[in-house]
Automatic annotation (TrEMBL):
<comment type="similarity">
    <text>Belongs to the universal stress protein A family.</text>
</comment>
<feature type="domain" description="UspA">
    <location>
        <begin position="4"/>
        <end position="145"/>
    </location>
</feature>
<dbReference type="Pfam" id="PF00582">
    <property type="entry name" value="Usp"/>
</dbReference>
<dbReference type="InterPro" id="IPR014729">
    <property type="entry name" value="Rossmann-like_a/b/a_fold"/>
</dbReference>
<protein>
    <submittedName>
        <fullName>Nucleotide-binding universal stress protein, UspA family</fullName>
    </submittedName>
</protein>
<dbReference type="InterPro" id="IPR006015">
    <property type="entry name" value="Universal_stress_UspA"/>
</dbReference>
<dbReference type="InterPro" id="IPR006016">
    <property type="entry name" value="UspA"/>
</dbReference>
Length: 149
């Protein structure tokens, strides 16, 4: 069965992603014989004021995202029993737009897995939900993985 060819797991640049989300992504990649991608977006806008005081702040943010991705990659490869070679993607920009307008088309992603974000209604009202924004605007299939194992 080869429904999906390119599966992406969205990874928070500092917090990573829950292990059961990685497991589900690996299982789906194996089931479909798909390529697996791990992607993290570094939002430059949030670092603007700090960049004046420390030139390397964006470089450090990118390095932290890359380290987080490498940690997740090790988990993915252990779940894939050596059969998976997850590719890492670090991009700069607003997360929703960068994912949907750059990463998905550039890598021909046909399934994106995202961990469920906060269920707190106030948090979603004040800050919005990345997962919800992606679902509303995506041109590919999106799987929101429950935050519970």
């Amino acid at each position: 069965m080869e429904l999906y060819k390119n599966i992406l797991i969205g990874v928070h640049p500092t917090a990573g992603v829950p292990e059961h989300v990685v497991q589900k992504g690996c299982d789906l990649a194996e089931l479909h014989g798909a390529n697996l991608y791990l992607a993290s977006m570094v939002e430059e806008k949030g670092y603007g004021p700090f960049a004046r005081y420390e030139e390397d702040v964006l470089k450090k943010a990118e390095q932290e995202a890359t380290e987080t991705l490498h940690t997740v990659k090790q988990k993915a490869e252990s779940h894939g029993h050596g059969k998976l070679d997850a590719q890492l993607i670090v991009e700069h920009g607003a997360p929703t737009q960068t994912l949907l307008q750059k990463v998905v088309p550039d890598y021909q992603i046909d399934l994106v897995l995202l961990p469920q974000t906060s269920k707190n209604k106030m948090d979603r009202t004040l800050m919005g939900s990345f997962s919800e924004a992606v679902v509303r605007s995506a041109s590919c299939d999106i799987l929101i993985v429950d935050s519970k194992e």
